[in-house]
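Incident log, structure service

09:12 report received: a user says their structure output differs between two submissions of the same chain.
09:20 pulled the input from the user's history:
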Amino acid sequence: MPHIDYFFAIISPFTYLAGTRLEEIAGRHGATVAYKPFDLIGLSALTGGVPLKDRPPARQEYRLQELRRGGLKAGMPINLRPAHFPTNMAPASYAIIAAQKAGGGDLAALTHGLLRACWAEEKDIAEDAVIRDCLGAAGFDPGLADSGLLLGAEVYASNLEEAVRRGVFGSPFYITDGDERFWGHDRLDDLDAHLSGKL
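09:34 re-ran on a clean worker, output below:
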């Protein structure tokens, strides 16, 4: 059975634009998926990335055009300048980690619900109430927002270490068996082709 390690930052707009296509691809190929949320700011510092606020104006302007076009192509609403961005990624990431361990709900729905809350619904995904609502809507116990804090903090830190060790440098990032790496929501077709044996 194929397996995909899914490294992502919960505040990444490009991860939002991926929607649930990863899960659709995994379903077609019978692949399992391990969700590995990480600290994008920490990753950038360790892999040579430049924080968004420090990028030259041309790069910032191009990013906004890419996001606008990406939303149109995906048929997804997106606010290019959300009210609560950037925000603390850790609490929502901890909740995803706790939910993955607990099981019983829809992890894809939880992850996408949190991303959508930031990029389409003008909600602060660092707020406990928002995280609890997303957990409940995805079929998880909202109490995981509290009970999963210790586990979440430990795994969140180790996910960052693993990401750096395995060559991750952005979000979303997909790694398959055999260490095939795919960076970006616009590489999901390539991931699909790889799992089909075409790439």
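09:41 both user submissions now match this output. Likely a transient worker issue. Closing.
09:42 reviewer note: The longest helix spans residues 57-74. The mean pLDDT is 96.
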